[in-house]
Specification:
Helix content is 43%, strand content 13%. With 276 residues, it is an alpha/beta fold. Helix 1 runs parallel beside helix 2 (39-53) and helix 4 (102-130) packs parallel to helix 5 (153-173). Belongs to the short-chain dehydrogenases/reductases (SDR) family.
């Protein structure tokens, strides 16, 4: 099975969504590069998957909050064997903005936004040159619910960026045969919640998806050609309607004069009195 599809590099691969992607992609015949901070967990996962699937697996310990480690992963993404990037590493900082620790907020933005962007940028030239490959960016339904943040407004905003970045990048890269998929999970049973200070067991359990189900749905969406996959959404027509309504705004988002309701730019000229 090894080398049937090339190599997939997965960030945040030691547990949760990343570990399940590793399992599923190995069973599809991808060789793997597993990236996370916890070397022991990565080695245990790699050993199990080698035994079960026979694919080649490289463990690349890296703390993506550290610039030197990020650059190390960028270099690996530039190799010729890379066929897929699963941009999964991310954190959530919960709570209202008024009391949020600014350092934790900055760390979340750096990982969820800046690092995800840099890793995608690193892999793009090679995929374009080979005219094939996939970038899977793990976003969140929080990115389209900015007015109702389930975790925090900062987290929602970071995932809104991932969605916008993915859609725009897909438009840019699709002529070269490269696919970009944004995956928007709802509440998923992972360690992210506890690390963010939220007990997932306090959520309505009918709204919490198991990690394996989420990843299986996301990969099925990729197989079906979806560029945005919302695993819990029953009817894809609802997302299509959302995109149609958004596109309908386009012609009126940039015009020479302000809208009439603002009372400027549309008023009749004022007649000045004639000089005597």
């Amino acid at each position: 099975m090894s080398q049937a599809h090339g190599t997939a590099l997965i960030t945040g691969a030691s547990a949760g969504i990343g570990a399940v992607y590793a399992d599923r992609l190995a069973r599809r015949g991808f060789d793997l590069v597993l990236v996370a901070r916890d070397k022991a967990k990565l080695n245990a996962l790699a050993s199990r998957l080698r035994d079960e699937t026979g694919v080649r697996i490289e463990v690349l310990p890296a703390d993506l909050s550290e610039p030197d480690d990020t650059r190390k992963v960028e270099v690996r993404l530039q190799a010729d064997d890379i066929a897929m990037l699963v941009n999964n590493a991310g954190i959530a900082v919960a709570g209202p903005m008024i009391g949020m620790n600014p350092e934790r907020l900055n760390a979340m933005i750096q990982l969820n936004v800046a690092v995800a962007t840099r890793l995608a940028r690193a892999v793009v030239p090679g995929l374009v040159q080979r005219r094939k490959g996939d970038i899977i960016n793990i976003a969140s339904v929080a990115g389209i619910r900015g007015d109702q943040p389930a975790i925090s407004v900062g987290y929602s905003a970071s995932k809104a960026y991932v969605l916008a970045f993915s859609e725009g990048l897909d438009s840019e890269l699709s002529p070269y045969g490269v696919r970009v998929q944004a995956v928007l999970p709802g509440a998923t049973r992972t360690e992210l919640w506890a690390k963010g200070g939220i007990d997932i067991n306090t959520l309505p359990q009918e709204a919490v998806m198991e990690t394996g189900d989420m990843v299986d749905a996301a990969l099925a969406g990729l197989d079906q050609g979806e560029r945005v996959t919302i695993p819990a959404l029953p009817d894809i027509a609802d997302w299509t309607a959302f995109k149609t309504a958004r596109a309908a705004l386009g012609p009126n988002l940039s015009r020479r004069l302000p809208a009439e309701r603002y009372g400027s730019g549309q008023a009749a000229p004022v007649s000045l009195p004639k000089a005597s």
